[in-house]
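Deliverable D2.4 — example input (structure tokens):
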């Protein structure tokens, strides 16, 4: 075999080896990216996912409190509407809280609450 034939044969073998090395590197980089993504979702990703899927007003507890506050407003029950505190997600709120979205014409300025 001449030197030219050996060079051509060796260069074809080297190309296959280089292609194998490049594909291995690509798979390795993709694997590392997947691992980084998994670590992110296990540590911080689930916290943000959990907080975004459970908004303040989607709980059944807040729905019943909202209905009770609306009922107190409709019946002009100032003591209940202005003074009662209700626990929602480890936070105590009153019916006057804007997050409940209750439209009421009652004013709480002249209502005196015993607990306050």
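Example output (designed residues):
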């Amino acid at each position: 075999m001449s030197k030219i034939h050996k060079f051509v044969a060796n260069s074809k073998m080297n190309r296959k080896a280089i292609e194998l090395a490049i594909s291995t590197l690509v798979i390795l980089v993709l694997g590392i990216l997947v691992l980084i993504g998994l670590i992110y979702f296990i540590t911080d990703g689930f916290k943000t996912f959990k907080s975004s899927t459970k908004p303040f007003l989607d709980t059944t507890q807040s729905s019943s409190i909202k209905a009770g506050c609306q009922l107190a407003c409709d019946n002009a029950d100032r003591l209940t509407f202005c003074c009662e505190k209700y626990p929602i997600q480890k936070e105590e709120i009153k019916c006057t809280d804007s997050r409940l979205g209750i439209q009421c014409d009652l004013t709480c300025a002249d209502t005196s609450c015993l607990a306050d």
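Residues 3-53 form the longest helix (51 residues).
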